[in-house]
Amino acid sequence: MSRGADREQLLEQVGISPDILEAADAKVSGNQFNELVDAGFKFTQDPNLGVWFGLQLKISTHGFLGYAALSSAKLGEAIELGVKYAKTRLGLVNIDFYIDGDDGVIAVDSMIPVDKDLERFFLQTFYTSFAVMGENLIGTLPEDIEAYCTYSEPEFDPKLAELFDDKHPHYDQPVNQIRIPKQYLDLPLGMSDPVSKQLMEEQCRKELESLGQFDDLLVKVRQEIVAEPGRFPKLEEVAEKCFMSSRTFNRRLADL
Questions:
Q1: Which residues contact 216 (CB under 8 A, 6 or more apart)?
Q2: Does residue 199 lie in a domain region?
Q3: What is the pLDDT of residue 236?
Q4: pTM of structure
Q5: Are 130 and 165 in contact (CB under 8 A)?
Q6: d(CA 108, CA 150)
Q7: Is 108 exposed, middle or buried (0-12, 13-18, 19+ CB in 10 A)?
Q8: Sign of the torsion formed by the C-alpha atoms of 189, 192, 198 and 202
Q9: Do 163 and 225 sit in the same domain of this protein?
Q10: Which residues contact residue 23 at a Cβ distance below 8 angstroms, ignoring those fewer than 6 apart?
Q11: Helix 212-226 / helix 246-255 crossing angle, nearest 10 deg
């Protein structure tokens, strides 16, 4: 039981066997994960579900990518790795990293339109897990690292408010970004290991390659959806543009 939801009930509603999650290489499809999040909102009525989830995502939770980041020489190098292989962890969002003036900027946006609750969940998870991993890598995050998000401020659980010590993103912004003063990108990491980093990054590369076909499909779907602003094409139309039957297209989407 967590946040007022029963684990078995949640999994049963989505059709995921508890036994599957015990396997070391367990994976659920993007569609199943989205349904699980939706069920979680219904069970808990908690607008901060993404924050609670993000708090659980320690370095080890991210597998090869987490250990590759931990083995990096500097914070900026770890961030670049995280962005490069982000698709292996969060498949429905697009993450970019670039320098803007005196800041390094991590920008986030959805690859395809999603429900606002689901979008908030993914963004909350991203921001919170960034803070958790940042503390894992360099200790306390500097005060002048700032986050901007497009969603409105939710009502915070008192425990969360105390945990974050009133350090929240800037809400109702036109962009989803984390802005990091450039000088912090050169902060050295205490567990730097070039050999381990190379080995872990090779595993990340293999994971990303295995996801390539799904990523390509998401990009195609997004292109078709935004091609004509204000018009949402029917599933059959998008399937035809992707050179698939509606049945195959549905099956491929279910596997994401």
A1: none
A2: no
A3: 78
A4: 0.74
A5: no
A6: 10
A7: buried
A8: negative
A9: no
A10: none
A11: 120
**How far is it, in rounded angstroms, from Cα 78 to Cα 88?**
15
In the prediction, which pLDDT does 1 show? 43
CA atoms of 156 and 174, how far apart (whole Å):
22
Alpha carbons 240 and 47: distance in angstroms, whole number:
37
Q: State whether 103 and 155 are in the same domain.
A: yes
Closest of 81, 48, 47 to residue 65, by C-alpha? 81
Low-confidence ranges of the chain (pLDDT < 70): 1-5, 20-30, 91-92, 111-113, 165-166, 211-220, 222-232, 241-244, 248, 251-256
Q: Are residues 238 and 189 in the same domain?
A: no
Q: What's the Cα-to-Cα distance from 35 to each of 58, 76, 114, 193, 212, rounded to whole Å?
A: 23, 34, 12, 39, 23
Tokens coding 203? 């595993």
Same domain, 80 and 167: yes
| Dihedral of alpha carbons 17, 119, 136, 84, sign | positive
Amino acid 193: pLDDT: 95
Structural domain count, the chain = 3
* Domain, as residue range, for 21: 1-45
